[in-house]
């Protein structure tokens, strides 16, 4: 099979892996080196500051020894198969970079022979790019759960970011649909990556010349909608992963029905807005101080598809409002619908000099219609609005077509 046909198969197969982001990795330019992490941008990824970067995203192979029922590349699937050699991936990466198509590489793989053998093949690609060709661009590498500590250590020397995918939100889900995998094995790999990242940081404090280990950290991915697991359990797993392993990102990927599907899997994909709501809730957990049980309480364990998670929380907790923007602490301001991290920080600076009015908020370009029932300013008090039976209708924005760039824009503005 020629390389073009392999690329067609394996680039398409890689689309199911959403754990792709190139923020956080920086490498100094080297003499006669190649590539850069810093440039602007066949996959597009968005950094937290809204910058677009382009990555060559593919699988080393879609052959796999596992039989995960939700995966198109499982061993029992009759999908077309292909396999790159490490040398072919290296050549493709360099050729695409020289044509200015990409700024880096996202490389994953099905598991062939064993986790260690697969990891060795992936490492050979990154080693050749870094040591033989002096490639300084961004590399995101799949860390195969179960691979040895020595191989994970090697992978982190060459890759900017590693990702060991948890795949399903609970261990029970995995036992049902992917019995060859477990949270314990994947968690062990995540723990090793986390420990090596922290060790590397400590070593570099002692000596700036100490080698880096996965300087952009690690991420993971969970498939949403393949099982009946509610959003509360998904977010609880994500929250524990952030706390235990200091992950940079948890990615949520809506389940996509595949041919010859297992009877236990749904026939239809979940609505994409569910994936979007999980990303919004994830952002609130990480940067706004919310807890999982506030966003998805036991009596309502799934996020609303109609309302964003912060607005839904505010409508359930009306007794917490209105909030006086001239007196409230930062933690309370962050819980006002429509008020993001950047807005709150600007607001705190403004009120040091004078009392904040609606005009000040308008200049900050916040969604005043959504915010007004929940705030008090120097010239505004929402008389009776917070207790109105029609408050949800008043503050809910009209339905619009979701954009592929919505999450990136929210990351840029911080307005939730």
Short description:
The protein is an alpha/beta fold and 416 residues long. The protein has helices at residues 3-13, 86-98, 115-132, 149-158, 171-177, 183-206, 231-245, 272-287, 292-295, 309-316, 330-333, 341-350, 358-363, 368-371, 391-395, 406-413, and strands at 43-46, 52-59, 104-108, 138-142, 161-163, 218-224, 249-254, 323-324, 375-376.
Order of helices and strands: HEEHEHEHEHHEHEHHHEHHHHEHH
- Amount of helix: 25-40%
Number of DSSP E strands: 9
Overall 3D geometry?
Answer: globular
* Strand coverage percent: 5-15%
Question: Which residues sit in consecutive blocks of at least 5 with pLDDT less than 50?
Answer: 34-41
What structural category do the secondary elements indicate? alpha/beta
Kindly report the average pLDDT value: 87
The biggest sheet amounts to:
7 strands, mixed
Strand order of the largest sheet: 1-2-3-4-5-6-7
Distance between the termini: 49 Å
| Rg result | 23 Å
- By DSSP (H or I, 4+ residues per run), the number of helices equals 16
Keywords:
single chain; 16 helices; 10% strand
Task: Walk me through what this model shows.
The protein is α/β, with parallel strands linked by helices. Helix content is 39%, strand content 10%. It is built from 16 helices and 9 strands. The protein has helices at 3-13, 86-98, 115-132, 149-158, 171-177, 183-206, 231-245, 272-287, 292-295, 309-316, 330-333, 341-350, 358-363, 368-371, 391-395, 406-413; strands at residues 43-46, 52-59, 104-108, 138-142, 161-163, 218-224, 249-254, 323-324, 375-376. The strands form 2 sheets. A 7-stranded mixed sheet has the order 1-2-3-4-5-6-7. The chain has a two-stranded parallel ribbon with strand order 8-9. The longest helix has 24 residues, at 183-206. The radius of gyration is 23 Å and the shape is globular.
């Amino acid at each position: 099979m020629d390389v073009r046909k392999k690329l067609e198969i394996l680039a398409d197969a890689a689309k199911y892996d959403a754990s792709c982001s190139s923020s956080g990795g920086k490498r100094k330019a080297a003499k006669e080196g190649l590539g850069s992490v810093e440039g602007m941008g066949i996959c597009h990824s968005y950094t937290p500051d809204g910058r677009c970067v382009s990555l060559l995203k593919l699988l080393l192979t879609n052959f796999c020894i596992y039989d995960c029922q939700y995966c198109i590349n499982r061993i029992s699937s009759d999908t077309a198969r292909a396999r790159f050699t490490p040398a072919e991936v290296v050549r493709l990466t360099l050729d695409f970079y020289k044509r200015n198509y990409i700024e880096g590489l996202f490389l994953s793989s099905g598991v062939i022979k064993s986790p260690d053998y697969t990891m060795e093949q992936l490492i050979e690609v990154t080693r050749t790019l870094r040591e033989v060709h002096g490639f300084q661009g961004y590399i995101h590498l799949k860390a195969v759960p179960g691979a040895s500590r020595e191989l994970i250590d090697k992978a982190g020397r060459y890759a900017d970011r590693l990702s060991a995918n948890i795949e399903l939100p609970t261990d029970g889900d995995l036992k049902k649909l992917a019995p060859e995998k477990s949270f314990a094995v994947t968690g062990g790999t995540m723990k090793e990556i986390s420990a090596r990242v922290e060790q590397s940081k400590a070593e570099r404090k002692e000596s700036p010349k100490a080698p880096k280990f996965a300087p952009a950290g690690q991420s993971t991915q969970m498939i949403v909608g393949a099982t009946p697991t509610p959003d509360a359990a998904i977010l609880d797993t994500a929250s524990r992963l952030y706390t235990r392993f200091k992950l940079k990102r948890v990615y949520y990927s809506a389940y996509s029905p595949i041919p010859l599907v297992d009877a236990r899997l749904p026939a239809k994909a979940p609505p994409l807005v569910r994936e979007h709501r999980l990303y919004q809730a994830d952002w609130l957990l990480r940067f706004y101080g919310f807890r999982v049980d506030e966003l998805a309480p036991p009596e309502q364990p799934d996020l609303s598809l109609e309302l964003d998670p912060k607005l839904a929380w505010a409508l359930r907790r009306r007794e917490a409002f209105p909030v006086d923007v001239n007196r409230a602490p930062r933690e309370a301001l962050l819980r006002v619908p429509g008020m993001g991290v950047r807005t709150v920080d600007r607001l705190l600076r403004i009120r040091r000099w004078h009392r904040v009015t609606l005009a000040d908020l308008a200049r900050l370009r916040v969604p005043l219609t959504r915010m007004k029932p929940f705030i008090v300013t120097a010239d505004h008090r929402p008389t009776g609005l917070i207790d109105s039976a029609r408050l949800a209708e008043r503050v809910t924005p009209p339905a619009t077509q979701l954009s592929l760039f919505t999450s990136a824009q929210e990351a840029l503005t911080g307005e939730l």
